[in-house]
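User: Structure please.
Assistant: Input sequence and predicted structure:
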Amino acid sequence: MDFTQKHISSEHLKGIVRRQPEILILDWCHINKYQLPWLIQRLTNLRELSLISVNAKSVIALRSCYCAHLQTLNVSFVSNFNDAALREILCPNNDSRRGHTDEKIRFRNLHTLKMAGTDITDIAMRYVTQYLPNLTHLCLSSCPRITDAGIAQLCTKPASTVTTLVSLNLSQSKLVTELSLEHLSKCERLTRLDLRHSSQVSTQALIKFAAKSEHNLQVRDIKLVDKRQVKS
């Protein structure tokens, strides 16, 4: 269901709950910090949630939700979304009734996280590696404060991303250099890497990175690394 640019009313909320969508798009919506958690807690079939440019306070309100069923979350271009905000929504559920450690992880089945254009720093990568054990796709495009140090955290054991990460978007990353390629070579399943418009990484360095991979990678569109298509 797509409610892009809508002002969400109580009638909208009731209608969404009745429909029980698997995909919900609330991009550029006016939805407050009480409405969003009320809604998410009642959507047991929800798998994908997009909150592009939604108010940061509303997004942070997800901390009161138990989102184990959610697989994709997009918080791109949310103003003032920073490390503290990410920590708020990812930190484990402290409900003592949930005995097992993995059950306390609020987004334990999340495999895609998009945070393009946010104010996160390298510190945020600590929360990503700690609280998202099944992450396969990560978008950090246009995050000007992400550096090689943050990327290193994704690629250093015991971070689960060493073995789970398949796709990483670092396009328009001002502070990411070719040192990150050395780190990323440790990610065992990485088959897509976007560094377009990242001035400190050369196309030549990406070609060398792709050549060393065992996944038959190629470089196209200048700085996009992905799997080479096998011709039938």
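Residues 96-100 have pLDDT under 50 and may be disordered.
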